[in-house]
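Tokens for chain A. Residues wanted.
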């Protein structure tokens, strides 16, 4: 069983599929995210969905998609270690702007729309349908760049395969999903349209007092009007993505073509996250690894140097007529061991966590938290 070597910093959120924690790697000190799913408390369908998410994450490698690093199962708990996006999700960004009564600039919305489309284009090229695109599943890194996450409802479509299952968040379900009709990649185009609409209006394009009313509005009514602040170009962009008939919606390539040229010219591909977790050599670990046998704990070289040093220091400090007893092997072993202990404590002190960042729990404590 592979140890993730992380410690919990704080809880980021809870959902029906599990709990998400911000963690710090105990070796390299960097932040990551661990999604914890209790397999013993979930149905066989949910278990299959969780394991499928891991399989899909392993295949994905794109700068605008949350990167997968590792996973393990301990005591019927599935732990998925992924990239940490420090900017939070788009839903939090929307709430922040709504609270301060400010609109998001159209240029920023176009930039995010372009990055979302690039990520979805990558998924579709690899025959993956996300099926749950919404503001809460789209994250931002420290540079305000998009990172699509939560691929738990994603599906890999085989050649000419058409899906009919109704999955996703009700507010963002497409009309064909509401009607239980066959659907394909165009459900993600509908999802992008809903996300861009929410960034402009701080609300979903369709609402309802009940699931039945919501479903009827999605399938039959037009979306709400956008604030007059935004140009006809972005209004038309959203309207085409929210076409009831999927055949009338653009595909992801056509969607990218509709994005303003200045947005695409100003785009700079972000640095891809690390392919693998880089382990920075810790002095504590290095010492303990080197101290795995008596030969390495008490090397001959150290013994010889210690012997010469002790004789020299004793000759200088003791009276000339006093006899210097030979240093026994046991004494040398004790002194070297004491020296190693001092080095270990010093190394730990120099590399310990800051008090405010010190993790509260370890990975083994997560099962007891939930």
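Reply:
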């Amino acid at each position: 069983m592979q140890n993730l070597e992380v410690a919990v910093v704080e809880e980021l959120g809870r959902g029906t599929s599990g709990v998400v924690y911000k963690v710090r790697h105990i070796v390299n000190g960097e932040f990551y995210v661990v999604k914890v799913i209790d397999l013993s408390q979930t149905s066989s369908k949910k278990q299959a969905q969780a394991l499928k998410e891991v399989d899909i994450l392993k295949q994905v490698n794109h700068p605008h998609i949350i990167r997968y690093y590792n996973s393990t199962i301990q005591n019927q708990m599935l732990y998925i270690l992924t990239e940490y996006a420090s900017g939070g999700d788009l839903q939090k960004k929307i709430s922040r702007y709504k609270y301060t009564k400010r609109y998001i600039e159209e240029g920023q919305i176009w930039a995010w729309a372009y990055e979302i489309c690039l990520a979805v284009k990558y998924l579709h090229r690899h025959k993956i349908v996300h099926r749950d695109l919404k503001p809460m599943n789209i994250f931002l890194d420290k540079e305000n760049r998009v990172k699509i996450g939560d691929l738990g409802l994603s599906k890999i479509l085989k050649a000419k395969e058409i899906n009919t299952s109704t999955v996703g968040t009700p507010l963002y379900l497409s009309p064909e999903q509401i009607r239980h009709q066959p659907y394909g990649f165009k459900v993600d185009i509908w999802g992008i349209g809903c996300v861009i609409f929410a960034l402009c209006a701080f609300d979903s394009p369709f609402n309802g007092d009940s699931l039945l009313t919501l479903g009827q509005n999605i399938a039959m009514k037009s979306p709400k009007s956008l604030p007059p602040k935004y140009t006809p170009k972005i209004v038309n962009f959203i309207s085409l993505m929210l076409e009831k008939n999927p055949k009338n919606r653009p595909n992801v390539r056509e969607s990218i073509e509709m994005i303003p040229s200045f947005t695409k010219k100003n785009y700079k591909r972000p640095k891809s996250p690390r392919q693998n977790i880089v382990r920075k050599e810790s002095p504590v670990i290095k010492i303990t690894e080197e101290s795995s046998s008596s030969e390495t704990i008490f090397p001959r070289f150290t013994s010889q140097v210690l012997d010469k040093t002790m004789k020299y220091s004793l000759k200088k400090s003791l009276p000339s007529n006093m006899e210097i007893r030979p240093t026994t092997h046991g004494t040398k072993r004790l002194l070297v061991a004491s020296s190693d202990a001092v080095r270990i404590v010093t190394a730990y002190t120099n590399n310990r966590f800051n008090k405010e960042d010190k993790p509260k729990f370890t990975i083994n404590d997560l099962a007891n938290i939930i």
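Residues 283 and 347 are 6 Å apart (CA to CA). The chain has three domains: 6-85+361-369, 90-266, 283-357.
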